[in-house]
Design goal:
Blueprint lengths: L2 H15 L2 H8 L5 H9 L18 H13 L6 H13 L9 E4 L5 E6 L2 E10 L6 E5 L4 E5 L6 E4 L9 E15 L9 H31 L1 E2 L2 E2 L4 H27 L11 H27 L10 H11 L6 H25 L8
Parallel strand pairs: 1-4
Antiparallel strand pairs: 2-3, 3-7, 4-5, 5-7, 6-7, 8-9
Helix pairs in contact: 1-4, 4-6, 4-7, 5-6, 6-7, 6-8, 6-9, 7-8, 8-9, 8-10
């Protein structure tokens, strides 16, 4: 499937199936099973997996429109997590399930330990856990696949994030491990966290693009003192700043997608640096864009009845997962300091610090 076909398919699916009513039903506890099945039937969930594993074999650059679409339409699906898990399983030469998959990244779990074929430990906030059959868990030494439906050995405590998406507590008590494998992408010391950050960076771009469109339209429609508020220079300046933030975040996310590893054997040394930059830039832009969007809309944008909150709440939630912009900025800064003056400029221009992890 070509990249244009992927983009067209994703746009059609989300535009035809996601609306405010679906989002409201989801936040009341109804999982959009029909939408998920449509996504699966069109091959989007396995887009990053190899053709031998039943996927498309797409690169992250090819799959960018899917992730951007998740954000633009605020589609409430564990699609990004499933795509990442499928890619890692496929790259390791393992079977890829069709059901939704959750991710437990390297930084969010506590006391994970493997004893034989059983996993013990806990993760306080696992996105989409309650709606997923499987979890790909990053332990300190390897990646393992766990059945979340394993009775008696997996306990899921329902929780939500700021977007009212599931962010459940998961406890493992000698949970059966169905597969275990080494990190297939050596350029990423923490593959689950890094690829999760990349996916959220692209999703945030989509949500910010939607916010910008809505804010511009509202500024033209809202008339005050006899003229649209968008004619006021202060509003125009704010929207211009917002547009600049969106463009910067988009470029950073697209560069990171171009550098990201794929199942065909591409494992680029610049990947981690580019992902870090994308998450930092995306998180910073999300904060500023959400603020400007609400300032433009005024009080109405804060009400649940207005659609604006579905995008801004997701931005607030997504900027924090898989490493916040502050955490990624700290890691970049520490790597730059360790490179010292003689390594700083070469590291920036090559988009690679050897000690970034």
């Amino acid at each position: 499937m070509s990249d244009s076909m992927i983009a067209e398919s994703a746009a059609r699916i989300f535009a035809d199936n996601v609306d405010k009513a679906l989002l409201e039903r989801f936040e009341k506890g109804e999982f959009p099973q029909r939408l998920w099945q449509t996504v699966v039937d069109n091959g989007l969930s396995l887009a990053l997996a190899s053709e031998a594993s039943g996927g498309i074999g797409a690169s992250w650059a090819d799959a960018y429109p899917i992730l951007r679409g998740l954000g633009y339409w605020q589609a409430p699906l564990p699609l990004a997590e499933t795509m990442i898990a499928a890619q890692l399983l496929s790259a390791a030469g393992l079977d890829v399930p069709q059901e939704p998959m959750a991710l437990v990244d390297e930084t969010q779990a506590a006391g994970l330990s493997l004893a034989g074929d059983g996993l013990s430990g806990s993760a306080p906030r696992v996105t989409w856990a309650r709606y997923c059959r499987w979890a790909l868990v990053a332990t300190p030494s390897e990646l393992v696949m766990v059945d979340l439906a394993a009775s008696g050995s997996v306990t899921i405590t329902p929780r939500t994030n700021a977007a009212l998406e599931p962010a459940d507590g998961v406890a493992f008590d000698k949970a059966p491990v169905l597969a275990r494998f080494a990190n297939p992408f050596k350029s990423l010391g923490r593959p689950v966290e890094s690829l999760g950050a990349l996916a959220r960076s692209a999703m945030m771009v989509g949500a910010m693009e939607w916010l910008l469109e809505q804010s511009v339209q509202y500024s033209m429609d809202r008339v005050q003192f006899g003229k649209p508020i968008g004619r006021n220079q202060a509003i125009q300046q704010s929207l211009s700043l917002m547009a600049g933030e969106v463009c910067a975040a988009r470029v950073a996310a697209q560069v990171a997608c171009n550098d990201a590893p794929d199942v065909t054997g591409g494992d680029h040394p610049q990947a981690l640096f580019s992902i870090a930059v994308a998450k930092v830039r995306g998180g910073e832009a999300a904060t500023r864009c959400a603020s400007i969007a609400h300032q433009t809309h005024g009080a109405i944008g804060f009400t649940y009845d207005h659609a604006l909150n579905f995008a801004t709440r997701r931005l607030w939630a997504w900027r924090e997962v898989y490493g916040s912009d502050a955490q990624w900025a700290l890691r970049l800064g520490q790597a730059a300091i360790r490179a010292r003056s003689e390594g700083f400029w070469p590291g920036v221009t090559a988009r690679q610090f050897a000690s970034l992890s």
